[in-house]
Structures are given as structure tokens and as C-alpha cells.
Amino acid sequence: MKRVLIVKVTSLGDIVEALPVVADVQRAFPGVKVDWAADEAFADIVHWNAGVDRVLCAPLRRFKKARSWSDLKAIWASIAELRAYRYDAIVDIHGVYKSAIIAFLARGRRRFGYLSQDLGERGAAFAYNGRFGPRPQCDAWHGMRISTGEALGYTVDTPPDFQMRVPRDGTALPAPEAPTALLFHATSKDEKKWPVEHWGELGNALIARGLRIELPWGNDNEHATALEIAALIPGATVLPRLTVSQVAQRIEDCALVVGTDTGFVHLAHALIKPTVMVFVATDAEHCGVRAPNRSISIGDGHRVPSVQAAIDAVDRVYPARDGGASTPASRVHAA
């Protein structure tokens, strides 16, 4: 086995959680080169994995929205790059039309994908001449590792190794002066959001544990919500709008991350930070994060988790430190 292509195109959290397949493949086949095909919007995340040789990307999402000529040309150019090598195996762990097309266009003997009933879009089946076994009874992230192992003939028997190396490119915010909790309140769908009042109550409980509170955001609506939450938490800081790289650097510099079912919370888990993920309308068992004494998911996807459940989860991943609470500042900072 000399070169393998992994196809996982979107989204941020899914790609982050799929990254351990790289270490798995390289553990099974020392010296193998692993390439990865992803949407351009998430290519940086894959670049941060130390084991990936080439990141093959195209502006698929942007072209779908804007239909621009320049994006179409970029997609055509990416096809030439995709076909520059012949692969011993192409493994599509995404399972929709766009990932299947990438797998089909790549040059290789074997193209592996899910069984029809496990595909995100059943028509994607045209691309494969090899199939994984039935979807295993486990979370989605471990399932991707098992499926890749089935395709390539090895067994997964180690904890996930994300091999994440976030570049320090000089754009990071100044390091916090005290232990800091990042609260990722924003998410892609309204039904996945935790109530503002819950964030306020949790933030005050974290301040009592000696933590500063910072609130990231990515658009105007999220900024407004961040200000609303900060108004409930004395001394909370609403961060300026950050790039993905800057958010990753801030995660590395913080002490604790609490957030909803969103990609940056998965990134915190991959960066080995104490992490609590709050599930309101999605399935924590299938899509959550978990690592002993470090990452935990709460919520069953049917009801809003209580603040006390979040506090209890924080106590499991970030136990109260000696020294008591710090005195919170008396005003809200907004950038």
C-alpha cells in the first residue's frame, strides 16, 4: 500500500472527527501516503493534520451558491490535481453525490463506499466497486474509522489520534491573562441552540470557579446573541470576529470549551481541550464528543438540557481548582 485517498468533503465538525483515519491507515501501512479530498472551505482543517500528504480541494459550496466562472475553472483545475496520482485505494467516508463523483474521478483500482442503505444519497452507489460492511452500532466518528479499516483490511483498536497542529501565524489574539472558558453559543440551526438565559446562568457559575468568559461569533445575528449573553455575565468578553485559524488558536489558549453541536466544539475536542458539548435537537450518542475526564456530551436530542447538567459535566472535565473564585469584573467588554 503506497498511496490512499480519503474523501470527506464537509463539514467542519465531520472532517475534524474523521481525521483519526489518517493515523489508523499509517499505523496499518507504515510509509503510506494519505491524501484527502475536501471542500475548499474546510481545507485548512485537513492541512493541520500532520499525517496528510496532499489536500485536494475545490470551491464546491461556493460554486453551488454563486455559480461563478472562476469557481468552475477552479473545480476543473482541481480534477487535474486529483488525477495526478494513481491510488491503491480510494475510500469515500462521506457517501453523497459530490463525494462519489470525486471518488469516481480519482485514479485507482479500488473505490470503497457505504452500502446503499447507509449512503447519505443512494445514487452515490455508482462510484464504488467495493463496499464497507453494514454500518456498525457505534457513534458516527468511530464508525468512519471502522469502515476505513474494513476497506483496507485492518482492525481499529486504539483511541483516536487527530494529529492536529494549528499553525501559529502571528494572527492570534493576545493570550488570556487568566484561565478562560470559550462559550460557543452559535450553531447552524435555531433548534440546536441553547437558551440565552441558560448561557448566562452557566457563565456566572464558571466565573465563580475562577474562569473568565469569552464569546465567539461568526455573523451579525450571532454577534447580537453574544452581546445578549454577555449582558448576563459580569466581565464577559465578546470577541472580535475571528478567522477559523484564529478561533483554533484561541481554543488552544483557553482552559475550557462549552458549546452546542457545532464544528468548533468538535475542534476543541480534537485539540485535547476540556470540552462540554450541549445537544438540544440532535443525537449526542451518534454525533457527540467523549473522552475520559476530558470531553463529554449532554442532552438526548428531545429536550433542552438543564444548566445543572452542564455544570455537572464541567465538573467532570474541568474540576474546581484550589484557590477559590476570582472577583469578576463589573462590566461587559464588547469588541
Can you tell me the CATH class of the largest domain? Answer: Alpha Beta
The name CATH uses for the topology of the largest domain is Rossmann fold
Helical content (DSSP H or I, runs of 4+): 25-40%
Q: Compute the number of helices.
A: 13
Structural class: alpha/beta
The ordered string of helix (H) and strand (E) elements is EHHEHEHHEEHEEEHEHEHEHEHEHEHE
Terminal CA distance reads 51 Å
CA-based shape: globular
Overall number of structural domains: 2
Low-confidence stretches: 323-335
CATH architect. name of the largest domain: 3-Layer(aba) Sandwich
Number of strands: 15
Strand content: 15-25%
Radius of gyration: 21 Å
CATH homology superfamily of the largest domain: Glycogen Phosphorylase B
What topology does this entry show?
Elements: E1 3-7, H1 12-18, H2 20-28, E2 33-39, H3 43-47, E3 52-58, H4 60-66, H5 69-82, E4 86-87, E5 89-92, H6 97-105, E6 107-108, E7 111-113, E8 130-131, H7 140-152, E9 180-184, H8 196-208, E10 212-215, H9 220-230, E11 237-238, H10 244-253, E12 256-260, H11 263-270, E13 275-278, H12 284-287, E14 295-298, H13 307-317, E15 333-334
Parallel strand pairs: 1-2, 1-5, 2-3, 4-6, 5-7, 7-8, 9-10, 9-12, 10-11, 11-15, 12-13, 13-14
Helix pairs in contact: 1-11, 2-7, 8-9, 8-13
